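Just scan this pair:

***
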Amino acid sequence: MFKSIFALAACALAFTSASAYGAQENTPILIKFSHVVADNTPKGQGALLFQRLVEERLAGKVKVEVYPDSALYGDANELDALRNNEVQLLAPSLAKFEKYTKQLQVFDLPFLFDDLAAVNRFQKRAKGRQLLRAMEDHDIVGLAYWHNGMKQLSANKALLVPADAAGLSFRIQPSSVLEAQFAQLHATPQVLPFAEVFDALKNGRVQGAENPWSNISSKQLHRVQPFISETNHGVLDYMLVSNPRFWYAIPHQLRTELEGIIDEVTYEVNRQAEAANLADRQRIEASGTSRIIALNEEQRDAWRQAMQPVWQQFETVIGADVIKAAQTVNRKKRD
């Protein structure tokens, strides 16, 4: 059961960060926004836009400091820093929250969402909004979903049907769902930092990977992956998060204004991410280094059917109601 906002706010009054107003009432609230990517990514641009809009509209009341490229905290310790109120905003990949809630694993389930429009519908509906609150007992509250993009499967051979992936090794993010996904294909999942993926593909340590077009392009993975199947089989998204004891200690009017700014920034981040993926797909296609394989409906249905056991495997931990809510956002009817 979720804590009420009133209970959280009462608890927040005792929280040391509720010096949200500082020792003096005229001291601006300080929000440190830490992330692990470059300024020129959609996430990086979103952080800078948030900083700029806060400065324009709430100068003297709220001050935002942005720390990109793991300058303050990295993947390994950023969530602990948030929970300890050493930073106040993060935007980690959804896969990184498995330790705090299993429900967000719904976004890793393969071939659950038909496309990014379906993901958008789910995130805006009641169940998707409810998941933003799923980690409050762990001092993490979700404020928005930020897109990176739908994932494609790249490999050193053409992947048309599920059996084509058998025997290959694929790089994955740390995720029990992604491990099960490739095990179901009789392939080998291998957890590697993103920075190591290009070299691992080049030297054959792994033979495939799953990434949005923008990740493939930014790391030049298409130069070492001759085939890319346009599967759109999963989503790589971020969640903008804060510490609830800090967030609910911000005076109501100011918090409402900050939430309005976050809505604007979220729209822009998601627009940029979608545009970047489209442009990067075209750039990869024009490079001629990779053959892009577009799955037809029959092929896509074969992949979806092959992945059904993964859905069933995680139904209990994610929640049948969450998976059902995700399925209902797809526009296409299925038997």
